[in-house]
Backbone:
């Protein structure tokens, strides 16, 4: 079976203006959402308490609310359904630092008489830990981007590196926008998903860039746009296929992975789609706009080859004892 | 069919993978197995902080107690011996004693001493304060570890995290009661103090305020069983739990549980001296600031043994003995982070992620065969080998599999076939160009190699950062992704290359590109 048989080069770059419009629109929407609505930090980053309760019948949320009201500890508590009508989470902004007193026990006591239930999970993240996790999270994003930037610059050329980083920022921003739109809690798992998107989206970009590099090095052509179009066309089957297989697994994770992994899978789902799009329509056009010049690159390569040859000649001479 | 080194290495890798993943897959008795993370098997994860400031305060208190004992013993008359959290003040009535007192302090390290005529002011030096605070953390880790080791749970984790946090992980806590007991055991200060009851003023204790008591150098303490009962005791303890060397549960004559404790030689001497002088007076046995009993001293008690009686159940008495035996916490601890997962939730998570893994895996495998035919089948062999190797490596290192770790494996399935997709596409291209089968395969691999390497290394960079900066469960994700990527280099690149080389002549002869690569011609 073949989705794309290479018969002719598609002119992707002719569509790059339109793609830029789409990207800018998506980015504007994402940042507007991020600024107006804001990210909904979960307990991992904001600090707070979560108690997950599962009933063996649909959870009597109204009854629970009434019961919890009787204890001041639950003053700021919100109750929301979690995955199924049987299961709910109680969220509080407050935390207790007392090791011997447990909010799980207190909840159990408070909910006495609301039916048959089980406290399945208690998460307490104190404010210092929350702030620390947030700081570490931001640091890890920056470090990952830095590491990737350096590696790509080293393996390709700085314009490639900058173009891929812009594509990454594009992808992560839109993923964050989508998270905000849906109103998911941003916890550590979402951070892990965002970092995975970094790696994944970069994979796609690098496969395309590798072809461009190959095209630039091997072909006599000096028209970058042509080379880019051909490279994207030639990698199109791979791009689609890998995106599809990854999409399959992320989708099954999203559908069947359970509520706890939901936010993680959702973030990845958005990332896979946006990452595929960006490697074709964001990273490559930027490379052209940055004025990557094939002729200069050829000259540089030739120069490098000459230097290598010169070095080799010197070494040979040295070894044969002339110098 | 032709053997080559690649296929041999691949075969060995598969044998390695299958062999070492078996203990985890079949849950055999012997062999190294993957540990399930707390989020999958249920358990308690806590990050504890130490209130280190209070360690210096209790250090000050115990120095005060030793001054008191020293002066009593050597008939040095001391007036106004008072202390707060930072300093100790006292005045000598007889200036001739100054020299002896100074010698006593010279033997102690880390004190700032200022003497103005006969009045002494003592405080801890800056270094000593830092040292005490640091020690409080190490000591808390040591103490909590000791206590949990004796609690009877399998492999409790107690480790320092960062500079001043303590990580406690208890897997396999099954019931609420167990968790409650564990938390109480960890958090209990277990600070034992023997204090003298101020018999002269004891009768006025209910009319006295705390500050009144302090005026007399006393402190008001509550009874452990009934908070309405109050005791007036001397603020400077006779001795504290630091001199305790053993504690065990025993029974009194009515067969009620109690705790027998034993003091070291120094403690026994102090205790003996005090009881010898205080016959007829009461001694308060104080644990964590509450009075447990106040027996009247009938005679000098040598040997340094004592009892704490309270209304304990056997379990409580046992846990308390463990806590006392493991030593007191020099400073109280507090909760910074806690995650507790019930076993049923863990089981649900395992089930859900297994469904996702199986579902994603089957989808990918079917898709690859439909799209690439034999090439897809070969990629699938590599994929299955990859899964086994991930499990084997994790088992060998005793790595922890968390829920995000499961997600990492699922994701690896999607990404590991990527290498084979790239390679297959390259081979297809070369076949279209009319290259010989040998050249198509070799060049296909060579062309694909660079891209695959660059792509994998950048993903690895992200994974390593995630490992370094991630905490707990997230680290598990970084681990499985990293192992998956590295294993895919072995299976998806080297392994499949070996298979192609082995089958090369067969492919050449069959000339059926549709069967082998899913393309016409």
Residues:
């Amino acid at each position: 079976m073949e989705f794309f048989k290479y018969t002719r080069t598609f002119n992707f770059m002719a569509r790059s203006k339109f793609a830029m419009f789409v990207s800018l629109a998506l980015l504007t929407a994402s940042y507007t959402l991020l600024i107006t609505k804001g990210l909904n930090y979960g307990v991992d980053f904001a600090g707070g308490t979560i108690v997950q309760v599962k009933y063996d019948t649909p959870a009597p949320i109204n009854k629970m609310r009434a019961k919890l009201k009787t204890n001041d500890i639950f003053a700021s508590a919100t109750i929301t359904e979690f995955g199924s009508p049987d299961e709910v989470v109680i969220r509080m902004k407050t935390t207790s630092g007392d090791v011997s007193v447990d909010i799980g026990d207190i909840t159990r006591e408070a909910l006495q008489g609301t039916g048959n239930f089980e406290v399945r999970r208690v998460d307490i993240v104190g404010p210092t830990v929350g702030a620390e996790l947030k700081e570490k999270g931001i640091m890890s994003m920056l470090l990952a981007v830095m590491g990737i930037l350096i590696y790509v610059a080293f393996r390709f050329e700085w314009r490639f590196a900058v173009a891929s980083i812009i594509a990454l920022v594009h992808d992560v921003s839109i993923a964050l926008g989508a998270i905000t739109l849906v109103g998911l809690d941003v916890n550590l798992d979402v951070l892990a998903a965002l970092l995975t998107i970094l790696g994944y989206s970069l994979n796609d970009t690098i496969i395309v860039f590798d072809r461009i590099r190959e095209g630039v090095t091997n072909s006599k052509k000096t028209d970058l746009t042509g080379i880019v179009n051909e490279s994207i066309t030639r990698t199109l089957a791979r791009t689609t296929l890998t995106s599809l297989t990854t999409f399959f697994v992320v989708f099954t994770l999203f559908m069947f992975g359970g509520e706890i992994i939901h936010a993680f899978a959702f973030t990845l789902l958005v990332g896979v789609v946006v990452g595929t799009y960006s490697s074709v329509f964001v990273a490559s056009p930027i490379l052209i706009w940055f004025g990557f010049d094939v002729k200069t690159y050829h000259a540089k390569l030739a120069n490098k080859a000459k230097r290598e040859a010169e070095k080799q000649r010197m070494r040979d001479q040295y070894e044969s004892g002339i110098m | 069919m032709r053997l080559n080194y690649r296929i041999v290495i691949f075969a060995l890798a598969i044998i390695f993978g299958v062999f070492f993943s078996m203990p985890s897959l079949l849950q055999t008795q012997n062999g190294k197995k993957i540990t399930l993370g707390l989020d999958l098997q249920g358990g308690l994860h806590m990050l504890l902080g130490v209130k280190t400031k209070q360690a210096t305060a209790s250090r000050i208190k115990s120095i005060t107690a030793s001054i008191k004992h020293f002066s009593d013993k050597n008939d040095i008359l001391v007036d106004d011996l008072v202390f707060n959290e930072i300093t100790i003040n006292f005045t000598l009535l007889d200036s001739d004693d100054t020299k002896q007192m100074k010698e006593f302090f010279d033997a102690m390290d880390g004190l700032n001493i200022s003497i103005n005529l006969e009045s002494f002011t003592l405080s801890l030096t800056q270094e000593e304060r830092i040292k005490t605070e640091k020690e409080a953390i190490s000591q808390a880790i040591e103490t909590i570890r000791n206590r949990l080791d004796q609690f009877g749970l399998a492999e409790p984790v107690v480790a320092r995290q960062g500079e001043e946090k303590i990580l406690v992980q208890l897997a396999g806590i099954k019931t609420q009661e167990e968790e409650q007991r564990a938390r109480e055991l960890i958090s209990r200060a277990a600070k034992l103090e023997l204090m003298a009851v101020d018999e002269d003023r004891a009768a006025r204790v209910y009319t006295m305020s705390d500050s009144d008591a302090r005026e007399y150098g006393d402190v008001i303490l509550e009874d452990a069983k009934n908070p309405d009962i109050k005791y007036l005791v001397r603020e400077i303890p006779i001795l504290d739990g630091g001199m305790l060397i053993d504690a065990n549960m025993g029974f009194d004559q009515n067969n009620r549980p109690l705790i027998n404790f034993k003091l070291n030689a120094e403690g026994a001497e102090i205790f003996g001296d005090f009881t010898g002088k205080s016959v007829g007076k009461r001694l308060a046995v104080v644990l964590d600031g509450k009075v447990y009993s106040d027996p009247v001293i009938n005679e000098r008690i040598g040997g340094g043994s004592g009892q704490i009686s309270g209304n304990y159940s056997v379990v409580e008495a046992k846990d308390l003995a463990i806590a006392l035996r493991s030593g007191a916490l020099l400073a109280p601890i507090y909760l910074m982070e806690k995650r507790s997962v019930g076993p049923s939730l863990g089981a649900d998570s395992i089930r859900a992620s297994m469904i996702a893994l199986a579902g994603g895996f089957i989808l990918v495998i079917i898709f690859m065969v439909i799209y690439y035919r034999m090439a897809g089948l070969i990629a699938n062999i590599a994929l299955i080998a990859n899964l086994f190797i991930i499990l084997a490596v994790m088992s060998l290192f005793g790595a922890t599999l968390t829920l995000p770790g499961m997600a990492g494996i699922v994701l690896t399935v999607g990404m590991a076939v990527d290498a084979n997709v790239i390679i297959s596409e390259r081979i297809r291209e070369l076949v279209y160009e009319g290259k010989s089968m040998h050249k198509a395969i070799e060049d296909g691999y060579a062309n694909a190699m660079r891209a695959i390497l660059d792509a994998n290394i950048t993903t690895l960079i992200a994974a390593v950062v995630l490992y370094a900066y991630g905490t707990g469960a997230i680290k598990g994700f970084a681990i499985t992704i990293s192992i998956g990527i590295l294993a895919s280099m072995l299976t998806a690149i080297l392994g499949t290359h070996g298979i192609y080389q082995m089958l090369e002549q067969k492919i050449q002869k069959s000339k059926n590109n549709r069967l082998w690569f899913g393309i016409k011609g």
User: Anything to note?
Assistant: Chain B has three domains: 5-41+342-517, 43-190+326-341, 191-309. Residues 473-510 of chain B form the longest helix (38 residues). The longest strand of chain B covers residues 333-341. Chain B touches chain A through 84 residues (CB under 8 Å).
